C-alpha cells in the first residue's frame, strides 16, 4: 500500500460548500443493496460537511439534475444500472460530473470474460475459463458442451453470470451431476455464463482509491465464508462470513495483491475507486477473479473496512473524490 504522507492532501480537502447528489436504487436484482450503500454514503457525506441528497435512477433524475445542478454525483448504484457504463454515458451527455470510472471502462469491467482477457494480457494470473451464451447450449446440445468444459477445466468449477455483481447466480460445482442445474440457475441472471476453474485458497478483496496522487491499494480484506463460497447469501447474511483486515497473509503476498489491484485498475482504465477480488492459492500465487467499479459501501461492505484500516475516515474519502470531480468543471 502507498502510505499517506505529510504532504498528501487531506482526503476531504476542498469540500466546503460542495453540493452532491447520491444515486442509489435502480431497477435490478441489486436494488436493496444499492439503497443501503446510498444511505450509508449520504450519512458519511453529511458527517464530512457535504450538502448531499439521494436520488433514484429513474425518469425524474435528468430533469431534477437540470433544475437543481449538483457539483458532482456519487454513483452508489450496483448491478447493471451502476456498473455497465450506460448511466455514466448519459451523465456524460448531460455534462454532469460524477465520481468513478468512465463509461467505456465500466463496460469492459462489467464483462467478466473481457476483463479477464485484458488483465491476463497485462501479465496478471487469472483462472482459466470458458464463457458461452445460452444459445450455444441450445443449438449444439448442452450435454456435449458441458462434457467439453469439464474435460478442459476439470473439477471443481465456479459457475457465474458473465456480468453482474453481489455474487448473484454464483455457484461452486464439485461434480458433473451438479453442473446442469447450476447452469440453469445461472442463466436466470443473464444470457451468458462464465465457467471458471476453481482455485482453492484465501479470498481477498483489495480496494483501490485515487485521492489525487494516483491509484493506491488499501489494506486487503480477507474473506472467510463459513460455507467456503462467498455467494450472495454469505455476503449479506450476518454471521455467515468472517472478515479479517488486514488480511492474514505474508507481507510479500500482501504486496503482490496490492500491486495486482493497481495493475487491474490501470489496465482497464478505471478511475477514482475500484475493488479487485482475488484468490491466493497454496503456492502463494495471487489470482485475479474480477473487479467491481461500484464497490459496496454499506456498513458491512469491504471498501469501508479497507478505508478504516488505512487510517482514513470514509466520509472524508468520499467527499474528497466528489471534490476532485467537481473541480474539473468549476
UniProtKB/TrEMBL annotation:
Pfam families: Dala_Dala_lig_C, Dala_Dala_lig_N
UniProt KW Magnesium keyword: yes
Domain ATP-grasp: 116-323
Signal sequence interval, chain numbering: none
Top EC group: ligase
GO molecular function: ATP binding; D-alanine-D-alanine ligase activity; metal ion binding
Pathway where it operates: Cell wall biogenesis; peptidoglycan biosynthesis
Major location category of this protein: cytoplasm
Residues where Mg(2+) 1 binds: 277, 290
Residue numbers binding Mg(2+) 2: 290, 292
Keywords: ATP-binding, Cell shape, Cell wall biogenesis/degradation, Cytoplasm, Ligase, Magnesium, Manganese, Metal-binding, Nucleotide-binding, Peptidoglycan synthesis
Family matches, as InterPro entries: ATP-grasp, ATP_grasp_subdomain_1, D_ala_D_ala, Dala_Dala_lig_C, Dala_Dala_lig_N, PreATP-grasp_dom_sf
Names of the cofactor(s): Mg(2+); Mn(2+)
Record's catalysed reaction(s): 2 D-alanine + ATP = D-alanyl-D-alanine + ADP + phosphate + H(+)
E.C. numbers: 6.3.2.4
Compartments reported by the entry: Cytoplasm
Cofactor binding, per record: Binds 2 magnesium or manganese ions per subunit.
GO CC annotations on file: cytoplasm
One annotated GO biological process: cell wall organization
HAMAP family: Dala_Dala_lig
Function noted in UniProt: Cell wall formation.
Family according to the record: Belongs to the D-alanine--D-alanine ligase family.
Full protein name: D-alanine--D-alanine ligase
UniProt source species: Blastococcus haudaquaticus
